[in-house]
Specification:
By secondary structure, this protein is α/β, with parallel strands linked by helices. Among the domains are: 293 residues, no CATH class; 89 residues, no CATH class. Helix content is 45%, strand content 17%. It is built from 27 helices and 24 strands. It has a ten-stranded mixed sheet with strand order 2-1-3-24-23-4-15-22-20-21, with helices on both faces. Strands 5, 10, 13 and 14 form a four-stranded mixed sheet that branches. A four-stranded antiparallel sheet has the order 6-9-19-16. Helix 17 links the parallel strand 20 and strand 21. Helix 21 packs antiparallel against helix 22. It starts with 8 loop residues before the first strand and ends with a helix. It binds NADPH dihydro-nicotinamide-adenine-dinucleotide phosphate (NDP), 2-oxoglutaric acid and magnesium ion. NADPH dihydro-nicotinamide-adenine-dinucleotide phosphate (NDP) binds next to helix 20. The site of 2-oxoglutaric acid (AKG) has 9 residues, from helix 19.
Amino acid sequence: MADQTNPDIVYTTVDEAPELASASLLPIIQAFAAPAGVSVGKKDISLAARILAAVAGAPDHLAELGGLVKTPTANVIKLPNISASQPQLDAAIAELQSQGHDIPAYPANPTTPEEERIKAAYDAVKGSAVNPVLREGNSDRRAAQAVKNYARANPHRMGEWTADSKTTVMTMGARDFCSNETSTTITAAQAGPARIEFVGADGTTVLKEGVPLDAGTVCDATFMSVAALRDFLAETISATKEAGVLWSIHLKATMMKVSDPIIFGHAVEVFFAELFEKHPELTGARGGLGTVLNGASDAVLADYQAVLDKQPPMYMVNSDTGLTNLHVPSDVIIDASLPAIIRAGGKGWGPDGNEADTVCVIPDSSYAPVYAETIEFFKKHGKLDVTTAGTVQNLGLMAQKAEEYGSHPTTFEAPADGTIRMIAANGDVLHSHEVEKGDIWRSCTAKKAPIEDWVKLAIERQKLTGYRAIFWLNADRAHDAELIKHVTPILEAAGVADKFEIMSPAEATVASLETITKGENTIAITGNVLRDYLTDLFPILELGTSAKMLSIVKLMQGGGLFETGAGGSAPKHVQQLQAENHLRWDSLGEFCALGESFKFLAQSRDNAKAGVLGDAVEAATQKVLEFDRSPGRKVGQPDNRASHYWFARYWAEALAAQDKDAEIAAHFAPIAAKLAENEETILAELAAGAGTPADTGGYYHNDPAKVAAVMRPSPTLNAIIG
Ligand SMILES: NC(=O)C1=CN([C@@H]2O[C@H](COP(=O)(O)OP(=O)(O)OC[C@H]3O[C@@H](n4cnc5c(N)ncnc54)[C@H](OP(=O)(O)O)[C@@H]3O)[C@@H](O)[C@H]2O)C=CC1
Ligand SMILES: O=C(O)CCC(=O)C(=O)O
Ligand SMILES: [Mg+2]
């Protein structure tokens, strides 16, 4: 019998669109898995659940899962969750309070130890608080062959690129994280708890103690000069004005939850410098204009409008409501935003509701060249031909909070002019930087075992595919140069150095685009940030969306974490569902992850029935593609719920048709028949509410009964599923 306390597969409860989709899909999965003796349990890692665990003593499912992923039998299906910016956190707290939960507001300026404690608890929930905890392995993201074949046969819409496009990338290139970086590998003598300290005119202050550093860890430190950043931002604004295009800024304020909101705040202050000069009382730039202008007087709003009129037009999140790029730090997230602009032919939405070319500001120059080169490539060659293009797969160094995405506890704003130093346990000075007040300093690490595992995965995948394999490492950047010292000997020892190229991100971008343009395939072997960026960029170009990606994390202790797609939680989709009861979320990523999860169960626990379920999921996924059963974007078209009906039907048909397990075949034959017989009724029942508002009882913390009513509106289907 299925064990619910220790389920074979853990499915995650998350937020927004994927969670709404789960309300329809998970009951189908659980019902289909049960006859094979496979239990599918749930763990709640939503923002609301994390808040309640942090400040109201609710069970901490994320911590439980964080333990589970370190065990060899872990089998987790991880859907995308909100990585909350400050405004999202505040909104979620307010919603929970309105529902009667007795939780404190976020104490922005704590004055007592209790408030300090509450603030720290909330801060731990903020930003990318889930993925780094669960990702105890490196990342393997690629399009399944069936998905790629479908995309080639059914090309998505892409904007035209022309040589005269004024869309460009602007980046600092000096005095930024990339150029100030220093990097070293920790020796046995230096291993142990390190210390980060600030040495100023008034003496030495310890910023952080007990930073654990193991021997063999690549340890970097760097900083961004805030004076240089502000000068650069001002320059981008004048250059944009001159070019007569939209101004846009692309950051990752969610995942880089300490550094990027600071950079975002500077952008708000520089863009609206006149407003802040005139109204020095305005605060909250890091929370965006939404926070700055909250409750603003008419005079302030008039001055805000006057600055807007003077400055270059801004790239908009929603031109109908006046929501700009600078309103909320989490509305424009670089991994999704830049590919969308590139897919559209270099166009973004302007305040007049029309598409226009745009200057894309990406302050740090570590990875900006990827987008700059992509844009130049398409200007020169025209848009990608999806019908013939090959694919870019990704193997990303991610385990154990690798690189920038693990740097939040070791990121600081310089308290004054002085020096920030990192001192090893044995007293060696690992890093030392002269900083000015407000400069953003950080240290990142990549541990030895994850690096070795990452190279090993690359060797395996290259051998399996024979594809062109490129390490995207820039020999002129300190961290990458240090990493190359680790990668090369491993490749040489394995006798495969000739199968791999090492190129800077700029060169690798061009090489990869040339490769796929020829219809050939390539593997991008990258660090953690490029893993994130490229697994949206290339899928969005090749497949139209990153929702259809296979996203596997081979946990280093032997378990499996199966992420669904490579994108996020699509807030726009929730708004559409609430307004007109249409959910355009495509669960193809969930289908792909589910198939892999069953297959992993079959192999890790020698469970043949799970293998049968997994094979049938794959067959069903192919049929969903083949017969175009994915959700439409517009109300009136079949939506997410209809796609789940088709998935269930094809899955049941494949289970009934297989001959490996007669018992399972016999169980599913009548289900398949009933699903087919009732097709018309079910689809009509699923579509009945289309066009009217839908009530889910909340945004961050839904009412499960209301969501079930909205997402499972077909009594006929529900009765068949049981
Ligand atoms: N793994 C994770 O947990 C991740 C979480 N996030 C979080 O998600 C939130 C939103 O991030 P954002 O950058 O806007 O990225 P999203 O990926 O959520 O949204 C970008 C756009 O991608 C399209 N899209 C994404 N997934 C699907 C899908 N399954 N089906 C159909 N279309 C899809 C939608 O396009 P259209 O509107 O045109 O339909 C959507 O508006 C943030 O809170 C962010 O932190 C982001 C990335 C990964
Ligand atoms: O954790 C997050 O905030 C986003 C993760 C992400 O974008 C990715 O892994 O592709
Ligand atoms: Mg991403």
